[in-house]
Automatic annotation (TrEMBL):
Belongs to the DPM3 family. The lineage of its organism: Eukaryota, Metazoa, Ecdysozoa, Arthropoda, Crustacea. GO terms for cellular component: dolichol-phosphate-mannose synthase complex; endoplasmic reticulum membrane. It comes from Cherax quadricarinatus. Residues 88-115 form a coiled coil. It is a multi-pass membrane protein. The keyword Endoplasmic reticulum applies. Component of the dolichol-phosphate mannose (DPM) synthase complex. The chain crosses the membrane at residues 31-50, 62-86. This is Dolichol-phosphate mannosyltransferase subunit 3.
Length: 117
């Protein structure tokens, strides 16, 4: 029972470190990690560091792969923006409350001698 205690502590420590690493990873780091994971193998194929029949046969498609990714990213971004604009909620209560606050502020300023149109 006690023989396995250091192993359990080691595993728990690694798990906590992994958990903490994931928590502090910023969005920039996520994007850079994704870019390295995609562009690393791509650049190896383009510079002929990796050569096989597949890369020779589909060299042009592999060469244009980042352009395709940027185009897909743009289309998805446009779709997300269009969806969010379409589903944007009107807040009638908030608008009425704001109009009431404007009236109160104008009345308060009028009491103090400031004339507003």
């Amino acid at each position: 029972r006690w023989q396995h205690l250091p192993v359990k502590l080691l595993l728990q420590t690694c798990h906590l470190e992994w958990c903490c690493w994931r928590i502090i990873m910023t969005k920039l780091m996520e994007w850079l990690t994704g870019a390295v994971l995609i562009l690393g193998p791509w650049s190896a194929v383009v510079t002929n560091t990796i050569q096989n029949e597949f890369t020779k046969q589909y060299y042009m498609e592999i060469l244009l792969f980042p352009v395709f990714l940027v185009a897909v990213f743009g289309l998805v971004s446009i779709a997300v923006i269009a969806y969010r604009v379409y589903t944007f909620n009107d807040c009638q209560e908030a608008a009425e409350e704001l109009q009431q606050q404007i009236k109160e502020a104008k009345a308060d300023l009028a009491k103090k001698g400031l004339k507003l149109d």
